[in-house]
Amino acid sequence: DAKTTQPNSMESNEEEPVHLPCNHSTISGTDYIHWYRQLPSQGPEYVIHGLTSNVNNRMASLAIAEDRKSSTLILHRATLRDAAVYYCILPSPRSRASGSRLTFGEGTQLTVNP
Amino acid sequence: DAGVIQSPRHEVTEMGQEVTLRCKPISGHNSLFWYRQTMMRGLELLIYFNNNVPIDDSGMPEDRFSAKMPNASFSTLKIQPSEPRDSAVYFCASGSGGAWDTQYFGPGTRLTVL
Question: Mean of the pLDDT values across residues A42-55?
Answer without folding.
Answer: 93
